[in-house]
Every structure is written in C-alpha cells, then in structure tokens.
C-alpha cells in the first residue's frame, strides 16, 4: 500500500506510532473520571489521534471491537470541525453504480453513472435496469419545477388582532425584509415570503435561492436576522427560528404543494417493444400496477407519497453524494404516473422537494466529493446554482429509473402469476 | 499497519499485485464494447478485483478520481452478493458517538453510547447534550408500542360485489392464510390481517412478528404465498405484491395510526433545576416552543410529523447500524410532546413506525456490525426478537435526546432574544 | 286548507288568536330587561307560542322580518325538546327528487326516488341523469364495508410507562369493558376496541354496532361508563370523553382508513353504447378525467378526498333525511374510481364513513320522516340495523349517480373543447 | 291565516282549487308511461302546480305521505329555476337562535343573534352559552385572513417538457390571463394564479376576489375562458375545468394552507373569574382539554381538522343563511387553540376556508334571506364584498362560541370526574 493512499493514523495500535504514551494514558484516566469530556479530545490531540483515543475508550467502555470503524482514508481535519463531533471513525457504506443513463435536463445533459451507497441488495441492479430502459428509450427528460429553500420562524402574538397586524406589517415591508435577509449572505437571494396565522401563532415562511448550497444554514442565518427585525418592529415574540412550516425533515403537505429545495419532474416515453424487451411486461399492465398501487393504494393509505420506492434511490444517492441523509425521506413524497398511450406509455416522477447542494454539508468529505465528481457536479457551478440543479436533475432521472424498474418487476410478476392461474384453471 | 487490518486489495494500483494483467486489459475492452456487462465482473474475477476493475472503468469513463472510494476495510465477499451490486468501493460516513445515555426499556436497560453516522455538523453534539440531560434526570423510559412488519398486496376484482366476496373469503380463512404464510418462514409469525376495498381494488394487509429481522423480505415472501392462495380461491387478480397500503418508504397515515415495524415511545421527566442547568432555559419556554412549533406549526403545515428533527437521529443511527436508510424518513413521523408539570416538564417522543432489525440487510456489513456490537444488539436476541426491540428502544431514547436538545436550544435562543428585546425597549 | 294541514299557531299575528295579551307584553318586557332568558320561554308558554314570541322578540331586536321563517307545518312539541333550543321557526330547504334509481344492495333492493334538499341549482338534475344511466345499466351494486360508530376518550397518564400500563390493562380487560359498555344501552353492541399512545396521552377508541341509530349519543354514554372504569382501575385521568381519535366531524385519515359509521362501496358497469347515449362522451375520456382530476389532482392537493362532488349528494340527502348535516363533510372523503374495460368502464365510489341512522336525531322531524318514508327506511328495521344500512346503501348509490354525471359532464365538455380546438387548428 | 302569509297552492288537495282536472289526470298518465318526464312539469304547469303534481306522483309511486313536505311558504318561481330541479316541496329545518354575541371584526361590529338551522339537540344551547361567555368577556375579535375563491382546471401535456412549457407560458402571460378572466364577470377580480405539475398533468389554480358572491360559478366561467386560452396557446389538452386542486368540497391541505373562499380567525381572552363563572372550570383544565384532544388527538388521527365541533356551527349557519351545505365540511378544518396566560386563557379559532356569499345561490330563498337579514348582511355590501366578509366574521365568532362551550363542558365534566375519583380514593 502506498503511503498516500493508506488510511494512515487511524488503524488500531499501529506499530511504532509512539502515540500510546503517557499522555494518552493520562487522558484515558481523565475520561474515565469525567474531568475530561469525550468531545474535548480534539483540544488535546491532533484529530486522527483524538479519534483513535476516543474510539479506544468506547471500545473499552462497551467491550465492542471497532477495528473496521477505525480504518478510513478520508481526511478528518475538516470533518471533525464541520461534519461530525465526537468522531470515532467511519462507517463504510457499499457503493454501487447504475447506468449509464442518458439525462436530458436543462442543466444536466449527457450520460451519467449514478453512485448509489446502499446495503439493500437488488437496489443497484434494479436502478441499473431502469437506466438501461431509459437510455434505450432516448433518455430521461428532466425539468426543475421549483428552486428555493425555506425557513419559517414562529412568533407569539398577543391576540389575533395583533397576529394580523404582524402579518400586515410583514407584507408591507417585504423590500426591507429582503434587504435585511440578503445582508447576511453573499450568495443567497430571498425569493418569496408567505405568512400564516394559527390563533396567536404567526409563521413567516421565507424562501431563498441558495445557489449551489442546499442552503438550510444560509436560510437559518438570514431568518434569524429577519425574525429579530419583525419581533422588534411588531412586538411579536419570537418563539422558535424554525416553526415547522418550513417544514424541515418532516413529511408535510406544505412542501409537496409549494415545494422546498429543488423540485424536479422527470419523464420518459417507452414504446411497446421496449416495454416487452427490457421490462418483460406490457403497457397496460404497467399502467394498471401504477394505477392500483401508487395512486389508489397510496390514497387509501392516507399517504403523502404516490410512488413505489423513490426514497430508496434518493437515500442511496444522498448518502453517496454527501447530502443530508435525514432528507432522504423527502423522496418518499414523489408521485409516479404512468399514462397509457396508443404507442406505449409515458412514465413520469414528480419530486416536489429535493433539498440538495454541491457545496457545504457533507459534500466536502472525500468519498462523497469523489461521487459528486463522478457526476461532474462537485463544488460551485457556473453560473452559481447550476451544479445543484444538475444534481437534482440527475437524481430525478435516477428515481425515474428506479420506479420504472420496480413497477416493471411487479407487473412482470403479475403477468407470470396470471399465466400460472390460467394454467391451473 | 498490520496486515489483517489493512484495506488490502482495493487501493488503486497496488505495487506488485500483478492483477493488472492481460486478463484485465481484455475485460476493459469487453466492457467498453459492451460484450461484457459491468455487473458480470464478479463472474470473471474475485470480488475485490471485480470491484477494483469496475471502479477503474468508471474512473476512465467519468474522469473522476475515486481513490478514497476505493479504500475500504470491509469484507466484500458477502457484500457483493447480499448488499450491493455493481460495487466500486465504499463511501465513508463519519461516525460520532453520543452518550452515555441511560435507557430504561423493557429490553434495553443500562448506559449506551449511541453511534451516529452523519455529515451534519452539530448533530452529534446536540444529541450528546440531550443524553446528558436524560441521564442526569435518571434515564429515559422506553416502551414498545407495536411490533409487526406489514405487506399489503393489491388485487383487482371484477366488481365491487366481487371485491366484497374476496375480503369476506379472506376473513373467513384467516387460519389457513396464517398457516400458509408461516410455512414460508422459520421465524416469522403472522399476527394480523386487515382488508381494504377501494372500488374494484382489494388490499390485504398482512402483519408479522419478524423477530430480530426488520422483516420486509420475510413478509414479502409470505405475502406472495398468501396472495397466490387468495387469487386462486377467489378469482381476484394479483396486481402487485406491494399495493402501497403496507406502506413502505412513503409517509402514510396508515403507518402512523396503526404502526409498522417497531413502534416506540420514550419519555423523561426534567426538573426545573435540570432544565436551567443543562438546557439553559425554563419549563414554560420549553413547553411553548414545542406547542407552537411541533404541534401548531406542523398541524398548520399539513404534516404527518410533529417533531423538531427526529429523522436526523433516526438517519444517523440507521446508517451506523446497517438499517435501511430509505426508512429513515419514517422517523419524521415522530410526535414530540412536552407536558408542563408543577415541578418541571415531561418530555416524550412517540415513534409509530421504526422498521429495524439486527439480522439481515446491512447489519452484517463489518462497520455496521461493530456499531450494533457497541449497543450489544448484533445478531439474534434471546429470545428471538429481543435484540431488534432493544435497538428500537435505544433509538427511541436517542430521538428523545435529540428532540430535547434542539427544542432546548430554540427555547434558550428565544429567551436570549426576549432579553435583547427588553434591553432595547 | 284543511285545519290539520295548516301551519297553525305560528304565522304572525293570527286573527283572533288572543295570545297577544298582557302575559306576552310582560314577557317581552322581561326578555328586554334580562330577567327572563330567551331559552326559558318554553317554561312559560306552549311551544308554538314560545317560538312565536321569541321570533317576534328577535324581529324587534334585529329589525328583520321573519315571516317566512315563522310559517311551518312540523309538529314542534318534540322538536323543541329534542332537536333545537331557542327555536324561532324553520328554514325551508327546497326538496327535489332524482330517480328512480335501481339499487342492488344487500339491504336496499329496488327502485328508489332520492330526496335531495338543496339550493344548489343543477344538482338534482345532475344526480337525476346519473340515476338514469345507472338504472339503464342494470342498477348500482352496493355493499356495506364497515358498520360501527366510534368514540375515543383521551386520558392523561403520569408517564409513558403508565400510559403503556393503561393500554395493557384495557387490552387485558376487553370482556369487562364490553360488559360495562353494553350495560348502558339496550341495542348497542361493542364490536371493537383499539388503543393509541401519544406521549402521556392515551386514547381508547371504542366501536359499536348501533343498529338503526347513527349512534353517537349511544356511544358517548357507553364511553362515559367505560372511561370511568378505566380511570378508576388505572389511575389515568380522564381528560375528555371525545379525544379526537373518534374522529367526529373532522376529516381524518383514521376514519377513511378504518371506517366510522357505515362504510359503503357502490359500483356499476357502463357499456360503450350507454356512455355515448346518456353521457355523450366515451370510455377513455371518462377514465382520463377521473384519473387526472380525482386521483392525481387530489393527491397533488394533499386531499383526503378523491372524488368530484360526493359531498353535494351526501349533504342534500342528509338534510332531506334528518341526518346530522355537520357529518356531510364525511362524504368529501369518498374515492371515485373508473376502470377502463374492453367493453366500457366500471365506475365505483367508496365511502369509508357515512354516519347515518333512521331513528333518533332529526329523523323524527315531520318532513324528514316523510323523506325517510319515501325510501321505506323510517324507524327501526327488521332486523334492527337493516333500515340504517339500507339508507347507507341508497346514499351510496346516489353518490355514484352524482359522480357519474359530473364526471361525464366534464368529459363531454372536454370533448367539445377538443373539437373546438381542432376546428380552430 | 292571512292570504299572503299562507303556504298557498301547495298543501294537498286544496278545496276548490280546481286544478285537479283533466289536464292533470292526463299528465299523471304521461308520467306513468314515460312520455313526459318529471322534470318537464314546469313546462306544462305553473311552478306551484308542477311541484304539487310531481309530489303527488312520488307519493303514489313510493306510497309515502308527503303532506308536510308539501306545505311551505317560500316563493317557488325563482327557486325552481335557480335552486332546485324536480322540486316536490321543502324540508323544514328547525331554526334556533344563539346570542346576542358581541363581534369586533373589521366588517361586522356589534351584537348579533346567530341563526342556527339544526336538528341536533343541545347545539343551539351550547353555542348560546359560548356567546354569553364571549360577550361578557368583551366580545370576539375577528379578522379576515384570506379572501379568494379558486378554480383549478387540469390539462394533459404531451410530456414533462411540454408541461413545463405550459406553466412557463402561463406565468409569462399573467396579465393577458387576468384580462381574459375578468372579461367574463362584472364584479370578480383575478387576484392570484399558481401552477402545479404532476407528471404530464398541469394544474392552473386561479383565485378571484368574488365580492359578495361565494363565487364558484363566477370563477368557473372565468376559468373556462382562461382554460380555452391556455389550451389554444400551448397545445395542452383541457381535461376538466375542475382538476381538484381547487379543491372544492373535499378536505385538502391546499385549502387549509393557502386558503379558499374567506379565511377567518377569531379570538377572545377569558379571565379566570369568567371561566369559573360561565364555564364552571378553570384555565388549566381548558388548556389541557384542548391540548390533548384538539392538538394531540387530531394529530394522532391523521386529521386535517384540529377542533372540537366547528362544523356543527358552520353547518347550522350555512343552512340557515342559504350557503352551500356541502361546504359545511370545510368548517371541519378549523384549528382551535387555547393559550394559557397568567390571568386566564386566550381562545382562538382559525378557519382557513369558509366559502360564503350573500348574493346568489341559496341566499335568495325566502327563509334564508330572512336569516341573512337578521345579521344585516343580505344582498350586496357597500363596498361590494363587505357583506360576505361580515358574514364570514360572524360565523367565525359563532364557531369560537361553539368551541368554547363544548371544550368548557368537556373540561367541567373532567373536573367533576376528577372529584369523583378523589372521593373514591
């Protein structure tokens, strides 16, 4: 193993490392007695050592062997500051590729290999089959439907009369609010502001174009500034910077209806021949599976999601690409539609809320950065925002591939069974 | 670095490996011309080599350097068969620990360090603070509310009369259905069956005790058997083995109301003193933040989730512990409540649907297995099911810690601002 | 006009009635000064006079002429005790009929004229057209999907541990609870009990077969008995007899999924010829309107209802038949499906929650009783429950007629427009 | 009975009316044989006679006596043309009054008696008690949150690319669309336009200020014009003038979030003394009932409504005031909040969607017109729109009264029970 490639400094008890000295022995004792906190280790030791010592401490405390966790190759200096406190190593998620898939977006154009980090067997294979169908069909059209990250502070008003005065004030001072909001960021632009009243609670939902960032931090900082301004001017009391009408990391109709982050729609037309050849089923069956499962079944279940397994693809690509994995659930609100045409089907996925970015967050962690590079979207785009939109478009195409493949499989199985039934009859 | 610890065989171009021979050159050519598929590499080469060759091919095709992706320590023999097709390496997710947290469940009892795989800065620190508050308060009570994985095939009936006959037949043959279902599994037990009609669509929702497995595969196989039986007996046509009333990986009221997988509730009482000391706020403010944000805000947003950021903790623990990351969104349907008491507050989180397991899926991947070991829940429990319930309880406690900490932070911030406002006034 | 038919005693200032005497003058003065309350008039005067005096008082206070309100023919003795306090007269709602419609239910079988009380022009005509199509097609099949009225008291537990103990106690004492519940009613039977926990809040949802009554009162009384028993045995504190998991008069997924009151499904097959002749459109267009409007549109809107205007028919029939008009919104959760067949379409409506009864509530008011008689369902059925189910089935068929007609009209219009567009092209 | 007050011409078999002649005998025969349709009677006879003959025919066909249905006093000439086809009489709904209630809106200011048409015993008494509490507390503040009726046609696009072109075209031609829309109405003003894509389905949601009309017809006519324009310009195919993102008469998050018709919020502060005196409970208990029932219970039930029984009041006032009763379900989406203050509670109801009007629809029917007169809101307001807003504000105050009273009753009962429990302990 060459030096520069090796996961240096974080395998257990490396020979001759010389770290296992007095200092560390003392640190262990301090941790044990509580005079030193686990999270303070980075103050005492270089990051790789802090991680190792912490891991060893956890091993002792829990009796677990954490050897594989302790072997990693990513550069941790930045990670311990920006991405993860109390770090003890990494978890390695198997990374597969699906594709190539031909994407015809406004930003992403060309053939892409999709990075999918997953432990769910068959997922990569399934997406791969969908990519093949789409590419053979001439590619997936993709369009951005929405582009704006939101944050909605909540205020307490003294009465409903006061609540109305607050929202009136806000709507009358949109320009000042925009100026104040944008003073906190060099990139973001405030694009919308809506107000909601629920009794004495007032919600101000601010929306920003956050360019290549997913933008939640940017928007939170801007919202703090705006919230202070509103509280000062109206006498409303700020209760929480996030009032859940944002609505972050919770499935919510406000997001599916109005959008949050990037919203995308992707579609492809498949001929009868292609359906038969790649998916081993027919147009009518594909349509019926989608109709009874994704539309009627989801409706009957009181669901906010009308798809087969969109969040599988979103989760796998989010993890691979350094996106916030807690947002993967947003993929679950996808709506998949299959229109029956004379000459085949038109399959589409509509993803109202995909909070993605190519700068900030986990995008700078080494492996994740490499995955973004695979898609040609690492870092800032030109113009700013283009890379994040590109990523959203590619994920949209990936979801289309995944939906197509699973619905096709269900349909083929169903056909198979129908045949069996006939045979028995 | 000792031999057995090293990520041997998958760093690029290892000196003297000798693999880069004629055979591989030929394979590259075949891949390029399409006569060999990327997914066929494991048939030609040992898994580590197949992964490396595939990665090199992707590097060439995309121009991306995937060096860090290519360095990993997990054993890939099993992974390429069970967890990930078309593998090119791994993505390393930073792993932090929070805790110890004292958990007082029916299954999990004691102090635990929580493994959190995340790239979201401040998350581990936040959960850590919550763990501290909970442990100081005497620990988190946790109870299992529900234990049953579901699958709901959808059938087409000829008419609504036929649809009703199908559901009548099913309810009259529960015992035979149970026998048939359980004949497909050595562990699972069918625990419930409910039927739903939507026009001519009939949904049969089967629920199983899947012991230590998350159970979706087990349940799918059993459902296939049952579905065939129903179709044969009633003449209804099976449309899809999953009819979205399961409802898997989509936010759905049916899951939040009736539960899916393990449902858990966790709670802790905090005294005024502790609130002040650890969270730097007071009982009334904590209550008000939760009331206006998590209850009123979420309600006003048409949300199925009434929490601050539960899916952050669920996602981070799911990824660390080899759970299906696409289920992390289920954490978003958590309901957090803060009751105001004379002597403090009672904080609780109710998670109606946590699909977790300690065997199968990603739980056998090395790093993930180590994380499960940290919690003492790797593999089958004694009795079977105990480990999965333990894991669910620990995650429930972790979510409680996360909610407490973020709501506390919002509340403290709000107090700070209130003070600022007063100062200005 | 014959004496017994006349709205005697409540027209204004009838000649020679002699009531306008000293006593009433005194009463007016007492009302004015507040020593007598408006609702106390029935203690002083016979019901018709009390109504008249109250109306005259309101006329004076508001300056409004309420002459038409004051003319009515219903017997008010019972009404003022059971249906309406502070009565000043009646509001006359125009009553139209649609039909005959052939209904093929399990309880309702034959041709029916549907009574529709409405002020919405075109509604009766529209339903009438739907009835015609259905009857020509051989009638509407209807089935009862669910039969059970619910009430869900909410309790406060001391902790989540206590909450779990409460639900455990309830599930372990189902038989005693059933006995206690049924001791409060001569007709009702407890058919199900489910429990839900949300933090320290415990919800016990009780379901009853209420025979021919809509049953909410019956169920509330039984729930009071059960709630007391649970509180006494477990130490949980009863917070409200109705805890909104019932869920009464609010649109809620728990009702659409699990049913409340009577749930019905109605369906009919229409041939291509009939679609063309009666609805002036074709199968494919009918299907597409339903697909894009009722399924995709409603899903995109975050709706719990997937229909065109089901609540129009439910409201009009509920008002005509003395049902609780505040339940009419439950009709809005209907799901309408149109399956495309080789030889036409199969149209169905699924109404998960129709709280109807033929005894109690407004069913005994004279006009309403007459409307129930039109359908042959007034009073108790034989066996008990049959009349209420019959009514539910007939309303289900009526909704089917209404949906068919409006969707047909939209489809025909769309065709017309398509033609216009072609003409222009 | 004086002539002009009597329900002339529609009681059964009036002596000497002379109508029962040959002509009618012939008509009966024609109806029987089907050569004359029931709905054609108004062409043959004056409205009162047509109604009578039709009723007599229904009586014969069904065997039901419809005497009370046949006695009415409203003028039917206009009703048979505008409000109800196939009319056979009326249904009389008992009308009670609650109040006076002091309303402090922006449009409605003063004391009002609320007309409530209902057959649900105790409702009027309950609202009356709430009115008393509110008036004693100094009146209900009310504000209009939203004013705009919507219609959302749905179009089919050829692909998602085409779908995006359609929405782009619409947003680029807002001014022309507004001009076209407003050309169809003398009163309405287009106030907003939003677009939604779901695969190949495109929804254009148009919002109008409809002044004193509820406005659904006005908006539908304007939407037809706009839809034609869009279809012509973009080549998208109009599928249905109403695409269910309106969303009319279905419970939908889009309406609760964005509003439809008039949205109102009403609130009142109650002192400890008043709570004790009028509601026989205390602030803390009131708060807790609302917290556990209306917020937590509804959330746990997957409900779009967070109230106790708002639709009871909305239904009773809608029926009394000639509003569309099928909209009463919209009241069910009300959110009721009770904030605990040092000196009492602040109670508020937020009704996001109240589709009301004072002209058109059922507002011109005699009894209903009288009820509107009781509130001083019949006909067009000055300026236009003022009467409809006034009505919305008064209904909002009425809902506040109803909520306060029922929550108070639940709270008092709960206290009583708590006492009982103590006694037993």
In short, what is this structure?
4 copies of one chain form a homotetramer. The first copy, chain A, has helices at 22-33, 41-44, 47-62, 76-82, 123-136, 160-172, 174-182, 216-234, 253-258, 272-279, 283-300, 310-320, 366-374, 386-424, and strands at residues 87-104, 109-117, 140-151, 154-156, 189-198, 201-209, 237-240, 260-271, 335-341, 344-354. With 425 residues, the first copy, chain A, is of the alpha+beta class.
Keywords, please?
alpha+beta, homotetramer, 425 residues, 10 strands
Strand-residue proportion of chain A = 15-25%
* SS class of chain A: alpha+beta
Query: Can you tell me the overall shape of chain A?
Result: globular
DSSP helix fraction of chain A: 40-55%
* Chain-averaged pLDDT of chain A: 93
N→C terminal distance of chain A: 64 Å
Total number of helices of chain A:
14
Oligomer: homotetramer
**Main pleated sheet of chain A:** 10 strands, mixed
The overall strand count of chain A is 10
Largest interface: A-B, 151 and 151 residues
Fold and architecture overview:
The structure is a homotetramer of 425-residue chains. Chain A is α+β, with helices and mostly antiparallel strands and 425 residues long. In chain A, 44% of the residues lie in helices and 22% in strands. Chain A has 14 helices and ten strands. Chain A has helices spanning 22-33, 41-44, 47-62, 76-82, 123-136, 160-172, 174-182, 216-234, 253-258, 272-279, 283-300, 310-320, 366-374, 386-424, and strands at 87-104, 109-117, 140-151, 154-156, 189-198, 201-209, 237-240, 260-271, 335-341, 344-354. The radius of gyration of chain A is 25 Å and the shape is globular. Residues 1-17 of chain A have low confidence and may be disordered. The B-C interface holds B 141-143, 145, 156, 159-161, 163-164, 196-201, 253-254, 257-258, 265-267, 269, 302, 335-337, 339, 346, 348-350 and C 141-143, 145, 156, 159-161, 163-164, 196-201, 253-254, 257-258, 265-267, 269, 302, 335-337, 339, 346, 348-350.
């Amino acid at each position: 193993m060459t030096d520069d490639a090796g996961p240096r400094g974080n395998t257990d008890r490396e020979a001759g490392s010389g770290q296992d000295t007095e200092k560390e022995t003392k640190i262990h004792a301090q941790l044990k007695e509580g005079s030193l906190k686990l999270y303070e280790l980075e103050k005492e030791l270089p990051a790789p050592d802090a991680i190792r010592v912490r891991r060893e401490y956890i091993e002792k405390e829990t009796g677990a062997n954490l050897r594989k966790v302790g072997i990693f190759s990513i550069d941790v200096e930045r990670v311990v500051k920006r991405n993860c406190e109390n770090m003890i190593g990494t978890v390695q998620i198997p990374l597969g590729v699906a594709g190539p898939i031909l994407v015809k977006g406004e930003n992403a154009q060309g053939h892409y290999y999709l990075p999918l980090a997953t432990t769910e067997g068959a997922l990569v294979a399934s997406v791969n089959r969908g990519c093949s169908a789409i590419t053979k069909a001439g590619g997936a059209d993709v369009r951005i439907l929405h582009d704006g990250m939101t944050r909605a502070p909540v205020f307490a008003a003294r009465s409903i009369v006061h609540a109305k005065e607050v929202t009136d004030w806000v709507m009358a001072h949109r320009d000042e609010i925009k100026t104040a909001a944008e003073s906190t960021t060099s990139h973001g632009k405030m694009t919308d502001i809506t107000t909601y009243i629920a009794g004495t609670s007032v919600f101000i939902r601010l929306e920003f174009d956050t360019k290549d960032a997913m933008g939640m931090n940017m928007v939170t900082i801007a919202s703090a500034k705006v919230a202070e301004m509103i509280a000062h001017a109206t006498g409303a009391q700020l209760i929480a910077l996030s009032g859940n009408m944002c609505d972050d990391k919770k499935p919510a109709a406000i997001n599916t209806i109005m959008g949050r982050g990037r919203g995308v729609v992707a579609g492809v037309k498949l001929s009868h021949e292609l359906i038969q050849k790649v998916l081993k089923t027919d147009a009518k069956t594909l349509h019926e599976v989608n109709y009874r499962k994704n539309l009627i079944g989801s409706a009957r279940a009181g669901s906010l999601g009308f798809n087969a397994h969109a969040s599988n693809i979103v989760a796998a690509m989010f993890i691979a690409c350094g996106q916030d994995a807690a947002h993967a659930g947003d993929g679950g609100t996808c709506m998949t539609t299959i229109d029956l045409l004379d000459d085949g089907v038109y399959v589409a996925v509509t993803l109202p809320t995909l909070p993605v970015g190519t700068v900030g967050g986990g995008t700078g962690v080494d492996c994740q950065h490499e995955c973004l590079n695979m898609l040609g979207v690492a870092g800032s785009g030109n113009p700013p925002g283009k890379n994040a939109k590109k990523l959203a478009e590619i994920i949209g195409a990936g979801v289309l591939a995944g939906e197509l493949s699973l619905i096709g499989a269900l349909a083929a199985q169903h056909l198979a069974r129908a045949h069996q039934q006939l045979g028995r009859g």
